[in-house]
Specification:
By secondary structure, this protein is an all-alpha fold. It has one domain: ABC transporter involved in vitamin B12 uptake, BtuC. The protein is built from 14 helices and 2 strands. A two-stranded antiparallel ribbon has the order 1-2. The longest helix has 27 residues.
Amino acid sequence: MQQSGGLKMSNLLAKAKMEFKGGLLSRYGYIVILVAILALFSVLSPRFFTVNNLMNIGLQASIRGILAVGMTIIIISGGIDLSVGMIMSLASIVLGYTVITLKLGMPLGMLSALVTGVVCGAFNGLLITKGKLPPFIATLGLTGIAGGFALVISAGYSMYGFPDSFTAIAANTFLGLPIPLILLLIIGVIYYFFLYSTHAGRYCFAIGSNEEAAKLSGINVTRKKMIFYSNMGLLAGFASIILTSRIASAHPAAGAGYELDAIAASVIGGASLMGGEGSIPGAIVGAIIMATIQNGLNVLDVNPFWQKVAIGLILIVAVLMDQLRKDRDRK
């Protein structure tokens, strides 16, 4: 019996290893798409392909990319998180309240934002693993809770008065690159090795591919999901710090819409909403594609409302392409 369980575990991990390697290789095509989009906007506007504008794209991609990294892990494991936008908003307000109202200083303020994110993520994990709620319902519920708390704490108003040293995080560069972009790249490297070089990462693929088989193979699915959702909250809290620094204020709706951006970037980068597939490099490229499209439309003076339409269409097309690929593989 023990030998059978060992074989199941071995087969499951081997399958997961093949899936994430195959998925990673098949997603290099998105780099070609990114280059094509860059070329298109460069032709349409001489203002697009400039050093300053490319740096701006990197800055815009950083927050989306950080969220997309965490979202990709959630999606690979077979879940979804619709609450990341409001977790960001709540973490930003807690940061502002700690620094501006309580005057406890920036270190404690940033720590409070991270803790807020982790607590919210862990709450999602508990609802899903112990409460047996579908991820869609659990995270949608937390969206309302987090957004409501953000409004209660802030009374619906923005918070201003952060020190210049804090707002400089998003405004300054290092080696010619925006600091938030550098932070995204560092996070990307860390999570790349986590997902592809650790047992926990391979378990993520195994759970998303077949959760019941993963349980039978001895994987503690409950514990792993708690880690994945808590990690998503941590990254949402971290992203809220960068966002707050960038806009130099804490706003109760600052993170609204970022959940869609994170999901779209993950799917564009090769994550399958059916679970079991995805890559960290793909998520980051997906975030850059999203930022490039938004920036290009801004340069072309396209109405911001149409940009939201474009994001929704991109997500639908990416999911349809994934579904068509799966149908082709079945045949």
